[in-house]
Amino acid sequence: MATDLNNLRAIARACTRVENRSPGHEQLLKELFPQSGRAFTLGITGAPGAGKSSLTSALVSALRARELRVAVIAVDPTSPFTGGALLGDRIRMQAHHADPGVFIRSMATRGALGGLAPATHDLALVLDAAGFDWILIETVGVGQDEVDIARLAHLTAVVLAPGMGDSVQAIKAGILEIADLFVINKADLPGAAQLETDLSDWGKPVLQTIATTADGIEALFQKTIELRHALPPDRAIDHWAFRLRRMYAERQQLRLDSGAVLAAARRVAGREADPYTIIEEWLKA
Fold first, then answer.
1. Cα angle at 56 between 180 and 231, to 5 degrees?
2. Residue 213 pLDDT > 80, yes or no?
3. Which one, of 157, 136, 150, lies nearest residue 92 by Cα?
4. Which CATH number fits domain 36-231: 2.40.50.140, 3.10.450.50, 3.90.830.10, 3.40.50.300?
5. Which of 6, 109, 252, 258 is most open to solvent, judged by the fewest CB atoms within 10 Å of its CB?
6. How many other CB atoms are found less than 10 A from the CB of residue 228?
7. Which 8-state DSSP code applies to residue 145?
């Protein structure tokens, strides 16, 4: 059942199998799990328009310059017609497609809250087992639902840009709390210094970058390494507690018979039964 993950095509097939929840995908993950646990995962999130894709691409270049293998999971909005990712592989990362040391995978949120598709952590496991040194997870950037990334990645970078009202927007959305570090991208624009002052109150490292020219990318890499070495040992336990709950909830949903759900919905809509009793019955079953 195990898949040979020695080439990018095999990795892509394994990712498709896992993302589509094809028959046998759980057995595949079980066999790959002992080979995982070595990759470092960095979440990149923040407001739309802040330049997350450009920053991710620049960081990939910096990592490849050190001969590190890099995988990118780009979580995109879901097409309401096909259920697939609307943006596809990010245009700004096309320069890396010919590099055998880089693997880029776009996946759709499929309506998942938290900014991450349900299978994102499983894809990260596949890429970890495939031997990638770094896994970058770039999320949709929709604001208040981005917090899942903080429970999947080892570290989370929240990206903002001057002149976008990012500080106010992010505070309202509640994503500042999940940051391990802040990245002010497009730092050549007016307002970068004020934004840095606003963010400094949160007590997290604040770095300025210009992703299109790679300015500040080396400092971002070095700070990420510093924070990686300072991670508390129990953080992995907290992350796995979250993932186990999500995995259990997903498995329970998959077990629900669609016909039974529709029948129950008719009963509730007709006020023949209350939804709380229905849920209790399902839990007992």
1. 25
2. yes
3. 136
4. 3.40.50.300
5. 258
6. 13
7. T
CB atoms within 10 A of CB 142: 17
Contacts of 278 (CB under 8 A, 6+ apart): 264, 267, 268
Does residue 6 sit in helix, strand or coil? Answer: coil
Q: Given CA atoms 235, 222, 159, 41 in this order, what sign does their dihedral have? A: negative
Rounded Cα gap, residues 42 and 135, in angstroms: 6
Give the model's confidence band at 181: pLDDT under 50 very low, under 70 low, under 90 confident, else very high.
very high
Least confident of 28-42, 64-78, 197-211: 64-78
Give Cα separations from 173 to 40, 151, 177, 221, 239 (angstroms): 27, 17, 10, 27, 22
* Distance of alpha carbon 101 from alpha carbon 64, whole angstroms: 7
Nearest to 166 by CA among 175, 153, 178, 156: 175
Domain locations in the chain as residue ranges: 36-231, 241-284
CA distances from 184 to 48, 98, 264 (A): 13, 29, 49
Concatenate the DSSP letters of all residues of 24-65 into one string. THHHHHHHHGGG-S--EEEEEEESTTS-HHHHHHHHHHHHHH
